[in-house]
Design goal:
Blueprint: E1 3-13, E2 16-22, E3 33-34, E4 37-39, H1 47-59, E5 67-79, E6 82-94, E7 108-115, H2 116-125, H3 132-140, H4 142-145
Parallel strand pairs: 1-6
Antiparallel strand pairs: 1-2, 1-4, 2-3, 2-7, 5-6
């Protein structure tokens, strides 16, 4: 539960978000759906550089311009007696649905595009299939993250 730095990225196409299902070998929240990509920066690594690196490592995504949306701090139980207490730099990137993906099976089981409205409904009706931080982003920080999108 020690406070530490993190980055999170949400790749967006129109009013859809690319989400990923975490690999079963992950040490916490395996098999749960999360935002497009997230990680912890290497020691003294620039958050923007970290976000760019991690998109490539997890999903094979390169050359998408990232937009810094702000910082979120949260503390959440992630299972197995573990607590994440993160200070997260949040980024978005805009693309088309035909984005080429190469998911790393050590990180990602599956990906899918979901509309923001459908995601909000699914978070309410099947909360257990989503990571705690995705709940926090969507329920508490949607306005900051999606500020350029009307109606969110």
């Amino acid at each position: 539960g020690l406070r530490h730095k993190a980055v999170s990225i949400l790749v967006i196409s129109g009013d859809y978000i690319l989400i990923q299902q975490r690999a079963m070998c992950k040490y916490h929240t395996p098999g749960q759906w999360a935002n497009t990509s997230c990680t912890h920066p290497d020691w003294q690594e620039d958050p923007h550089r970290c976000a760019t690196r991690r998109l490539n490592e997890e999903l094979g995504i390169t050359k998408l311009p990232l937009n810094h949306r702000g910082q979120v701090e949260y503390r959440a139980h992630v299972g197995g007696g573990l607590i994440e207490h993160e200070v997260v730099e949040v980024y978005t990137a805009h693309t088309q649905f035909n984005l080429q993906l190469a998911p790393n099976p050590d990180d990602v089981m599956a990906t899918r595009w979901v509309s923001i409205t459908d995601l909000q409904n699914q978070l309410a009706t099947t909360p257990e299939i989503f990571t705690p931080w995705l709940h926090i982003y969507m329920e508490q920080h949607s306005e900051m993250i999606f500020k350029e999108m009307a109606g969110v």
